[in-house]
Structures are given as structure tokens and as C-alpha cells.
Amino acid sequence: MRDLITEHRLNIVLALILLGGPLVAHFADEPFLVTLATRAAILALAGVGLNIALGLGGLVSFGHAAFFGLGGYAVGILASHHQTYVPLMTAPFLINGTNQMLVLWLVAVLVSGLAALLIGALSLRTSGVYFIMITLAFAQMIYYFAISWPAYGGEDGLSIYVRNAFPGINTLRPLDFFLLCYAVLMLVLVAQWRMTGARFGVALQAVRQNEGRVAALGLSPYRIKLAAFVISGMVTGLAGALYADLNRFVSPSMMSWHLSGEIMVFIILGGVARLFGPVVGACLFVLFEHVFGSFTTHWQFFLGAALLAVVLFARGGFIGLVVGRVRHD
């Protein structure tokens, strides 16, 4: 109980640091640092999405970049049609493009959630290494489809010339856009915290520990895991939508297996199943990329060394190491 209280306090401190850093950078006239923090918040959101499946449900998905990319492409495609004034569809009914973030987020979440439902419905009939491979295979299929889709840039990607709009906020200002991404991240973290303590979250963790006993209680482990996989995909798709607006660009690289691996690295670095584990991991990733990347193009060497140290000596990740519980529970 003492460790749990300490972790809650650490989470609050981490949330304040993530908020305070960009505010200080803004008043110090360092917009680049604000953008770095925005990137960290968005990648953390993608990590939170995967952590629902991996941390709570024990589903080692190696294809979550597909949902990240689908969320990004949903934004990119609708925004490009809005910019060119060309309807997305004219029959059987008219669909125009839009630059309204609320609409774009809804579409991104629905598209990535539908993809997660289809992929999860098939993938969850397997387990172990077969589940890892089939999720990777689906992601690669979507990746190569995006490459061979010339209507929306193909391998060259698709540009969003002007960042999309959110009511009452000037999204072109780095600090405003950061605060928007930060608010989304915090809302999703609160939702995950509430879900973890709810009956669904308890059932999901029970499925991770022993499917047979859950089935014996009359529950369906398959349906519970599928629901978690869909929620996980929707959160990751929302992160992809924000990432598209951050870079004002989407490309097939958002769906590559490299990104799936990086999202998993966030979680392992910060702590698997820890609420703020992906947040810490994403911040460390961006920090390594920026600090060591300014000295060498092989900055991943240092990231790999840190990951190795965490796996060998702190399997509870950074948060587990700080609160004194170094092993994953």
C-alpha cells in the first residue's frame, strides 16, 4: 500500500514536470523545446494505448503502428480534401474534407477502432509468438498498402499545409498545441486509471493471469481481450491523429514495424502496466534522441544500453525502480 501511494505521488510529480517544462520553455522563448515536449506527449499517448493491451491484458502486439498510421492518415486525407476543396466522396452521398480537429479525431478513432476490431478478431484466436507475428503481418500489409496508394502520396507521404483547427485555441502556437495534446493525454490516463479499477479492468487483468479460471466463472476471455485490443487501437489512433497535426505530414513510416517496436520500448523503459510508464518512456526516448542525436547518428546505441539495463536490473521500469518495486507485478 505504501508503494502504491508513493507511485501515485510520483505520477502527480511527473504530470507537473511534463506540464511545467514547456511553460518554462515558452517564457524563455524556446519554442523548439515546447515542440519536443509535444512530441513526447503524443508518443506517450501511443504508449498508453499499447499499455492497455500489453500491460493490462498481456497482449504483446507488434503491429500497433498500423493504428497509429491509420489515425494519422484519417487526418491527412480529410485535411487534404478540405485544402483542395475536392469532396472525398460524391456518391451515394456527399462527404467533404474538414479541418476541425474534433471531427478528425472522431474519424481517426473510429477508423483505428474498426481496424483493431478486424485484426483483433482474427489475431486473438492465436496466442504467444503466433499472436505477435500475425499482428506484425497485418501492420505490414497496411504499411505496404499505404506505399502503393499514389492518390495520397504513396511512399512520399501526404502534407498538411495548415494545422487543423480546434474551437477557442490557436493551434498554430506551439504552447497552445502542446496544452491541447497534454490535456488529451491526461484525460486518457484518467480514463485508463478508472478502467483499471472497474470490473472490466479487473477481468482483463484476471484474463492475463489465468484465462481458464476466468472462463470457469462464466466470462469470455476472448471478448474481454478483443474489447481491450479495440480500446488500445483507438487510443493509439488518436495519438496518430495528433502526430499528423504536429508534423503536418503523414507517411507510411508511421505504420512501420520500427515504430511498433519503439512504442513497446516506451512501455518497457517506464514500466509495463504502470499508469505513467509510457509517459516516462516516451520522455526518455525523446530526450535520448535529442541529446545523443546531437552528437552522433548512432544515438540508439545509448537507448539500447538503457533498455538493456532496465531489462536486467529494473524490470519494473523507471517507475518501479523509483518506488522500490523493481520487478513487474
Sum this structure up briefly.
The protein is mostly helical. It has helices at residues 2-27, 31-56, 65-84, 101-123, 128-147, 174-197, 199-209, 211-216, 221-247, 257-270, 277-291, 300-313, 317-323; strands at residues 158-159, 249-250.
Rg over CA atoms, rounded to whole Å, is: 20 Å
Distance between the termini: 14 Å
Strand order of the largest sheet: 1-2
Number of helices: 13
One letter per element, helices H and strands E, the order comes to HHHHHEHHHHEHHHH
Question: Judging from the principal axes of the Cα atoms, what is the shape?
Answer: globular
- The number of strands is 2
Low-confidence stretches: none
Largest sheet: 2 strands, antiparallel
Detailed description of the structure:
This protein is globular. The protein is 71% helix and 1% strand. With 329 residues, it is mainly α. The two termini are 14 Å apart.
Notable features of this structure?
membrane; about 70% helix; transmembrane; 2 strands; about 325 residues; mainly alpha; 13 helices; cell membrane; transmembrane helix
Outline the fold blueprint.
Elements: H1 2-27, H2 31-56, H3 65-84, H4 101-123, H5 128-147, E1 158-159, H6 174-197, H7 199-209, H8 211-216, H9 221-247, E2 249-250, H10 257-270, H11 277-291, H12 300-313, H13 317-323
Antiparallel strand pairs: 1-2
Organism: Hoeflea ulvae
Pfam family, one: BPD_transp_2
Membrane topology: Multi-pass membrane protein
